[in-house]
Write a structure and sequence with these properties.
28% strand, single chain, five-stranded mixed β-sheet, 88 residues, globular, 2 helices, alpha+beta
Length: 88
């Protein structure tokens, strides 16, 4: 019996300025961002289209995370900039 597999994840790549922002995050913020990236990698259509661009905008109100990204023809996800809204 073969094990069941979850949804196939897209390959995720972070570019500047996302890498610069990532370096400034706390461990808690990084964990929240990771959860959002996993959700996007499983379903790249989660975010809403930004009119007039190839970009998508994903916001997770619960974790207070916003990710701007686009999906390539090969379904790789390029993250342009995570934006963490700190939740107090």
């Amino acid at each position: 019996m073969s094990p069941e597999h979850g949804a196939r994840r897209s390959h995720v790549i972070m570019v500047e300025p996302a890498l610069t922002q990532l370096a400034k995050l706390t461990a808690s913020e990084t964990h929240r961002l990771d959860r959002a990236i996993v959700a996007i990698s499983v379903n790249p259509e989660l975010g809403t289209e930004v009119p007039g661009t190839l970009l998508r905008d994903y916001a997770d109100e619960i974790d207070g995370v916003r990710v701007i990204y686009y999906v390539t023809a090969l379904r790789s996800i390029i993250i342009c900039g995570p934006d963490l809204a700190l939740v107090v």
